[in-house]
Design brief:
Elements lengths: L2 E6 H7 L14 E6 L4 E6 L3 E7 L20 E4 H4 L11 E7 L2 E6 L2 E6 L25 H13 L12 E2 L6 E3 L8 E6 L22 H14 L1
Helix pairs in contact: 1-3
Length: 229
């Protein structure tokens, strides 16, 4: 049975900045979209960085509405190449109607109808990568990975220059939190792995609780897990 929602393509394009481009990990080559009790959850990661964003359910005017699914719906992985086709026509109109029918995806936006196929794969448990705490210990980061967050800020509407300035909460050799959505009005968070020497290497994205993540993220994670149970 098809299901339709209105999704912010500005947010979708921003989250896609963290998606992988590796063919071997095809299931990471897009944005994982879930339908939680409080809104639409969008996540992308390449294993070194992660972006997670929450959008409230909205109607075609942008007003918040209660569209919580009566029964849990499976998440869907929207491929990056399909997202790239979604161009912003009007800056004040960024909501597109997304219809999901199995793996068939249809976006309707400003008179355009763009169809595609969801990635048929299992998305990893991204919630497990959130740091347990943030130590404040300094760390080094890959410039290209940081640039992806700058690009995401640009997609969220910030001008060049301003887009490159955002807080990064250092965490030594552990994943850092990136407040890339600071000042944009969007509810989102990023995670970034530090650059470590070969001798210091530890398992990437180690399993961790969500104690240091924003309250809205922890609540979302708990709710989504319970809904899927």
């Amino acid at each position: 049975m098809p299901h339709s929602f209105h999704i912010d393509i500005v947010a979708l394009r921003a989250v896609a900045c963290a998606a992988s481009g590796e063919e071997t990990r095809y299931y990471l080559k897009g944005v994982f979209v879930e339908f939680g009790p409080d809104g639409i959850l969008m996540t992308a990661t390449d294993g070194a960085k992660l972006i997670h964003l929450r959008q409230p359910y909205q109607d075609d005017t942008g007003a918040n509405v209660d569209l919580t699914p009566a029964a849990p719906l499976p998440g869907v992985i929207i491929p990056s190449d399909l997202i790239a086709k979604l161009k912003i026509r009007i800056k004040t109109l960024t909501l597109a109607k997304l219809t999901i029918d199995g793996l068939k995806l249809t976006f309707e936006y400003c008179g355009d109808v763009i169809g595609g196929t969801a990635i048929d794969g299992t998305y990893p448990n991204y919630r497990a990568v959130m740091p347990r705490d943030v130590s404040g210990e300094s760390a080094q980061f890959d410039a290209a990975q940081l640039a992806a967050f700058t690009k995401a800020r640009g997609e969220l509407g910030l001008k060049k220059g301003v887009a490159g300035r955002f807080p990064v909460w250092h965490n030594g050799g552990n994943p850092a939190l990136v407040d890339f959505a600071h000042g944009t009005g969007f509810t989102a968070i990023g995670v970034l792995m530090p650059v470590r020497s070969k001798a210091e290497l530890a398992p990437a994205m180690s399993l961790a609780a969500l104690a240091a993540s924003p309250l809205w993220f922890r609540e979302t994670g708990a709710s989504a897990t319970e809904a899927a149970a």
